[in-house]
Design goal:
This protein is of the alpha+beta class. The strands form six sheets. Strands 12, 15, 18, 19, 20, 21 and 22 form a seven-stranded mixed beta sheet that branches. A five-stranded antiparallel beta sheet has the order 3-6-8-1-9. It has a four-stranded antiparallel beta sheet with strand order 5-4-2-7, with helices on one face. A hairpin with a 4-residue loop joins strand 4 and strand 5. Helix 6 crosses helix 7 and helix 6 packs across helix 8. The longest helix has 16 residues. The radius of gyration is 27 Å and the shape is elongated.
């Protein structure tokens, strides 16, 4: 029998320096044979649900963390039994010095090194900013202890007349949808997917809540709403994931950056009329053009005249960093909490390109699959509180940014127009800014420019 060894796989750093992740679900069980880069688990960071590939080809010896467990980066989570040849360092060189053992990469999205090469196998879609765990990436290695004789008994001779039992196909869905179904006690086997090619969607899972076979009676959580059991006087939910990260970031921002806020109510009738014309334009066919799209474009134009709002206070270096590009953050409310993915180099995009980029970000956020790259590096943000029927607010700055714009709902109100009172489309804009970086004059000029563009979109040609 070929010699085998046990290799432990440690939870890697999944990007942005996150220190821990939750094991959502295992895709394998002890005794299963796995191949290199096969998805073995779903883990939830404070930002997204990530599929974790296997760094080895071999057999799963032990699962070292239960689903639902929060594990620190660098902690062993699974042990593999692999052939000793695959784990053995290469032979000594001609000079007699022992060669260094091959480093086993464990980068999510890139997978492990292909046998016979020193480079990792790159998948089609790579996760940006992912780094190996600070601990030994390949984990620990130990000699495989002898097992009881029963464990090594040969398999019984197969019966040529017996038909193999068909393996049930797992219902097709995304990791966030499976996580939601698990939280709600919904059996995906009982659902019929309405998505493309039978994909089970979030709406399919939510539609099953409350049906007789939906696991009623257990604590359920959907879209952030916890359903207490009958007779309960309170419900306690662990602080973890996005909620934990958001809370820490907001506290740090509120008590580090001196916030100041300003408000401006604007007649945006001309922008709403422009929006209606764009939706009928063939160039925008298939694109979701919304008031948020126009506000985003207006913010980009106003920043050209007021660049101090697109900057960063570097406390460690005692420097003010002025960005010459705009990574425009779009705050998104998701079942897992608030996330702020950003459109990279938004200043270079046309309006149709900006509309498409925002739509992709929003969909990824709702599906729980924004990439680490999308969630990092923002320079200024927009939050749309108007979709909840709110007029104005005082948003807290996204950490590291100098300003955030909140757009309220568009309301039809009596308004002064050409010396008379008329019903007009009106919106209130709120601006919070870091007073260390931005003076009241600069903030006021930016907000006034933003309002002027939305009141009369034709002014854009005078500002660019």
């Amino acid at each position: 029998m070929a010699e085998t060894v046990i290799r432990e796989f440690r939870l890697p750093d999944l990007g942005e320096g996150l220190t821990e992740s939750e094991i959502v679900a295992w895709r394998v069980s002890p005794g299963d044979t796995v191949s290199l880069n096969q998805v073995i688990a779903e883990v939830e960071t404070a930002k997204a649900v990530v599929e974790l590939p296997s760094p080895y080809s071999g057999r799963v010896a032990r699962l070292l963390a239960e689903p639902g467990t929060i594990v620190a980066v660098g902690t062993p989570i699974v042990a593999f039994e692999v052939a000793a040849e695959a784990a053995r360092p290469p032979a000594e060189g001609s000079r007699g010095a022992a060669a260094k053992p091959k480093r086993e990469p464990n980068l999510v999205g890139y997978g492990a090194a292909i046998e016979g090469t020193g480079r990792p196998a790159r998948k089609t879609r790579a996760w940006a900013g992912v780094r190996p765990a600070p601990a030994e990436p390949g984990g620990t290695e130990q000699a495989h202890a002898p097992e009881p004789e029963a464990a090594h008994e040969p398999n019984p001779e197969p019966n040529p007349e017996a038909k193999p039992e068909p393996r049930a196909e797992r219902p097709r869905s995304t990791p966030p949808v499976r996580k939601l179904a698990k939280d709600l006690g919904i059996d995906l086997e009982s659902l019929t997917g309405t998505g493309t090619h039978g994909l089970i969607t979030r709406d399919d899972v939510l539609a099953a809540v409350g049906t007789p076979d939906a696991g009623a009676g257990s604590a359920q959580e959907a879209a952030g709403v916890v359903r207490p059991s009958r007779g309960e006087r309170e419900t306690r939910t662990p602080i973890k994931g996005v909620r934990k990260l958001t809370a820490a970031a907001m506290v740090a921002s509120a008590f580090t950056a001196p916030h100041a806020s300003e408000f401006l109510t604007v007649d945006v009738t001309a922008s709403m009329e422009l929006l209606a014309r764009l939706r009928e334009n063939r160039a925008y066919s298939g694109l979701k053009v919304t008031p948020l799209t126009l506000v985003a474009k207006a913010v980009l134009v106003a920043l050209r005249r007021n660049p101090s709002l697109n900057s960063h206070w570097d406390e460690a270096a005692q420097e003010i960093v002025q960005y010459h590009y705009v990574n425009l953050g779009i705050a998104a409310a998701t079942p897992r909490g608030l996330v702020v993915p950003n459109v990279k180099d938004a200043q270079d995009l046309t309006l149709p390109e900006l509309a498409e980029a925002i739509a992709v970000l929003a969909q990824n956020a709702r599906d729980g699959r924004p990439t680490p790259e999308e969630l990092s590096g923002g320079t200024i943000s927009i939050t749309n509180i108007g979709v909840f029927g709110i007029d104005a607010g005082t948003p807290i700055l996204n950490p590291g940014e100098a300003a955030i714009v909140a757009m309220g709902q568009v309301r039809r109100l009596p308004w002064e127009f050409h010396g008379e009172v008329a019903l007009r489309e009106v919106m209130t804009l709120s601006l919070s800014f870091d007073h260390r970086l931005v003076d009241g004059e600069q903030a006021s000029r930016f907000l006034a420019d933003l309002g002027a563009i939305l009141a009369d979109p034709g002014l854009v040609i005078t500002m660019v």
